[in-house]
Amino acid sequence: MFYRLPVPRMSTSVPQGHTWTQRVKKDDEEEDPLDQLISRSGCAASHFAVQECMAQHQDWRQCQPQVQAFKDCMSEQQARRQEELQRRQEQAGAHH
C-alpha cells in the first residue's frame, strides 16, 4: 500500500509551511494507477522513502537524496523497459 502526498501549490509570495499528510487507503478503494505503476517498477521502497521524508521534514529540499534515489530507480526501470520493448520489436521483425 502506498500513500499519496499532496503536491503543495507554489506561489510568488513567501511560502508557508506545507501540509504533507499521509493518506491511508481504505479497503474498498481501488488502487491508484500511479501506485500500481510504482509497485510494478520495483521502485516502491525509494518512493516510500521520499514520502516518509516529506512527511517528516515537510520541506522537499531536505529530501533531495531520497528524491534522487527514486529518480535514478525509475530511470533505470524505464531503460530496462525500453530495452525489452526494442528486443520484442526485433524478434517480431525477424519472424516476418
Write the layout of secondary structure elements.
Layout: H1 33-41, H2 44-57, H3 64-94
Biased composition (Basic and acidic residues): 78-90
Pfam family, one: CHCH
Subcellular location: Mitochondrion
In short:
Residues 43-75 form the CHCH domain. The protein is mainly alpha-helical. The protein has helices at 33-41, 44-57, 64-94.
Structural overview:
Residues 78-90 have a biased composition (Basic and acidic residues). The structure is a single chain. The chain has helices spanning 33-41, 44-57, 64-94. The chain has a domain at 40-95. Mean pLDDT is 80; it is low at 7-16. It has three helices and no strands. 56% of the residues lie in helices and 0% in strands. By secondary structure, it is an all-alpha fold.
Task: Give the termini separation.
Answer: 43 Å
What coarse outline follows from CA principal-axis ratios?
elongated
Count of alpha/pi helices: 3
Structural class estimated from helices and strands: mainly alpha
Integer-rounded radius of gyration: 18 Å
Question: Topology as H/E string?
Answer: HHH
Strand tally: 0
Give a short account of the largest sheet. none
Taking pLDDT < 50 over at least 5 consecutive residues as the criterion, the unreliable ranges are 7-16
Helix content: 55-70%
Fraction in beta strands: under 5%
- The residue-averaged pLDDT reads 80
